[in-house]
Structures are given as structure tokens and as C-alpha cells.
Amino acid sequence: MNGLAARIHDALPQTQCTRCGYPDCAGYAQAVAEGEAAINQCPPGGAEGVARLAQLTGRPLLPLDAQFGTEGPRAMAVIDEAWCIGCTLCLDACPTDAIVGMNKRMHTVIEAHCTGCELCIPVCPVDCIALEDATPGHTGWAAWSKTQADAALGRYALHQARLQKPKPAPAPDPAAAPVDRKRAIVEAAMARARAASQQRTQATKP
User: Fold this and answer.
1) Other Cβ atoms closer than 10 A to 72
2) pTM of the prediction?
3) Closest C-alpha among 88, 114, 90 to residue 102
4) CA–CA gap between residue 5 and residue 201 (Å, rounded)
5) What is the sign of the dihedral through the CA atoms of 85, 90, 92 and 96?
6) What domains does the chain contain, in order, with CATH numbers?
7) How many helices (H) and strands (E) does the chain have?
8) Model confidence at 44, in pLDDT bands (50, 70, 90)?
9) Which of 76, 89, 95 is nearest to 26 (CA)?
């Protein structure tokens, strides 16, 4: 990431919501720096966010592009634990690991870590996740802070590292071991029989 892209990235709210059309805030920052994206595609940053990017890039100030969303209060995900089936799909979808839970056990949201990205909503198969207004009357950067943005970025980095970490191979099924051993014995016996047959065929040739 070059100098301008890094400065743009530092000015973004780090919600990692993808509403700008890019996979994360870093991708959007790089695209803006390279002139591939406009400065008004970040709804969480709102009007103040656009002004920040205009100042950094020297581009004209623009209103937030409505096709990417509208500025509003920061939302917080809330899980209806009575309906949660513990599928874990939301765990990987959450960019800051703000959702905790185990397979087939109910999940819950850590309020302090939720950025309101909304990415957990579409992956939930039972629609048990709702959004609540976490900052009534405050929108954009008035509903968020640089401290929160830095914390979200740190958690996003840890989340990405967790996803890229190779998953351990599943433990062998003890019940399948005798079957696999028997199959190996049979296959070895068949291989010996084929080899013996070929030897007899070659021995009988004139």
C-alpha cells in the first residue's frame, strides 16, 4: 500500500462492511488512491468521511453516492438466542470476530466489538439476527471514533489471520480403521496374485 493509499486507509472507519464495493477498507483505499473508485462510496463514514477523503486526495467534495447506501446511525447485531441453531456461519462472516459461540450451541454478539457491518445478516439460515440502533441521533463519524476504528482494524487483522490458518485434519474414525485395514490387506493380496500370474505367464512363453 503506497503512501496515499495508507493515509486514505487511516481515514476510513474500518467497519469492513464491503458496502463500498470492495472486500475491505484497505481495498477501497487502494482503489481511491489509484483513481479507480470515487471518494463518496463509504456510507459508514458519511459526509464527514467524504470530506476527509476529498482533503487527502485533492478531489472535489461530493455528496455520498446513494447507490452504496445512506449515512445513518451505527447498528449493532443482536442474536435471538432462542432461534439460533449454532451453525457458525456468522462466525466467519463477522470481520471483527464480534460473535462468539460453538457448533450447535447458541451464539452471542460482543457489543464492544460489533462494527454494524451487517455481514452476518445474509448468512444466517434461520434469520435470527437483527440490527439495533446503537447510536440514536448520531450518524457517520459522530457515531464512531478513531479509537473504535483502530480497534476494529486490529480485530479484522486477527480475523483474517484466523481464516488463513490451515485447519487441522479431522481425526481418523476409529470405527473405519478395521475396514480400511481389511481393504488394504485385500488390495495387497490382489496385487501379489496379479504379480504371480504375470510371472507364470512369462515362464510359459516359448
Assistant:
1) 16
2) 0.77
3) 88
4) 73
5) negative
6) 3-68 (1.10.15.40), 75-164 (3.30.70.20)
7) 7, 4
8) very high
9) 95
